[in-house]
Amino acid sequence: MFQMISGSALIVMMADNKTKSTKPANKTPPKSPADPAKERAAKRLSYESNSSHEGAMAAELSALEEAFRKFAIHGDTRATGKELHGKNWSKLCKDCHVIDGKNVTITDVDIVFSKIKGKSSRTITFDQFKEALQELSKKRFKDKSNEEAVQEIHKLIEGKAPIISGVTKTISSPTVSRLTDTSKFTGSHKERFDPSGKGRGKAGREDLVDASGYVPGYKHAGTYDHKVQGSNPSSHGR
């Protein structure tokens, strides 16, 4: 019985192998190998094209965001640059000439800021910042389309930084004025300066011997020789 079953199984297996061998062979010719140099060139061109497009978009955004961050951290050492508070928002609009005093005023800037920010928030994010600029662009550039107006207002801000207004001025103090006023100097200190306040140099520090023969302070000093020469007869008639 076992031998009969084994023989039957052998016959079945031989029939299956014969069926498999009669299947038509795949006559599809293999793909010709592509040129590796051409593939690399195509990939490089595609990558450079995508990179240049993305880079241009990133550069445009970064110029605006860079300005946002510079104004966001202005005057605040704890600021992260990710949020802009109302004071610096107003400064940005002023320094970048978004406020022109005609179409856009400081009041318009404050109203837009209050409208865009959250009710319980005192700052705006970069996305809210762009939304606020879009609101102001309609008033700032009325003669342009919405898209052109946004582009123009972005150009006013891109790459800009806060303007440091003024420099530290010297504070006048009565004490300092008294110490630097040469007309009030006395004693040896007074001798070191002339009536105009200019230093006399060595003459103000040392006692120089006056060998002119005139009394110090004499108004007609130096006129003696001139008078003598003028009265000499030998000087006349020449």
Task: Give a description of the structure.
- With 238 residues, the protein is mostly helical.
- Helices cover 52% and strands 2% of the residues.
- The chain has a two-stranded antiparallel ribbon.
- The longest helix is centred in the N-terminal third of the chain and has 37 residues, at 36-72.
- Mean pLDDT is 74; it is low at 1-5.
In brief:
The protein has 238 residues and is mostly helical.
Secondary structure: elements and pairs:
Blueprint: H1 2-21, H2 36-72, E1 84-85, H3 86-95, H4 106-116, E2 123-124, H5 126-140, H6 146-157, H7 174-180, H8 187-190, H9 224-231
Helix/strand class: mainly alpha
Largest sheet descriptor: 2 strands, antiparallel
Compressed to H and E, one letter per element, the order equals HHEHHEHHHHH
Percent of residues in helices comes to 40-55%
The strand line-up of the biggest sheet is 1-2
Low-confidence residue ranges:
1-5
- Quick one: overall form? elongated
Rg is 47 Å
Task: Pick out its properties.
disordered N terminus; 52% helix; mainly alpha; two-stranded antiparallel ribbon; 238 residues; single chain
